[in-house]
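Lab meeting, item 3. Inverse folding demo.
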């Protein structure tokens, strides 16, 4: 008994069961439109989350972190604008010290004066001479 006659008889039945027009994918335009839709959804949800009350994006009223120092993997010391030094750890927040006066405001960063910068070629030649 041979399987070949059975396969030959089943081939036309399989061809008839297949639809005449194969469905094609969305193409390049459809993929680009889907990408824009997903990106728009992400931006829209981020915008909505930012404006919801209780979200973590906005700082609390009356509190501002002036300085922070990491003490360990999960612990840090924080100076808050209300005039206290707080210890922040996974177990909670502890008042470490109350400052008598607020910390001075840090200086605003300045851009370097381009006319006072040293000549790069001279610096490079000096470095190369030192290493030899």
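The presenter then showed the designed sequence:
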């Amino acid at each position: 008994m041979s399987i070949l006659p059975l396969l030959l008889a089943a081939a036309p039945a399989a061809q008839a069961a297949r639809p005449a027009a194969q469905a094609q994918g969305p193409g390049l335009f459809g993929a680009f439109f889907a990408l824009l839709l997903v990106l728009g959804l992400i931006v829209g949800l981020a915008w909505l989350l930012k404006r919801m009350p209780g979200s973590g994006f906005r700082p609390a009223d009356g509190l501002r972190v002036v300085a922070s120092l990491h003490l360990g993997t999960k612990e840090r010391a924080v100076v808050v604008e209300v005039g206290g030094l707080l210890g922040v750890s996974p177990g909670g927040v502890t008042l470490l010290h109350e400052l008598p006066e607020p910390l001075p405001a840090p200086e605003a960063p300045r851009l370097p004066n381009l006319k006072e910068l040293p000549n790069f070629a001279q610096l490079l030649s000096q470095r190369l001479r030192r290493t030899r």
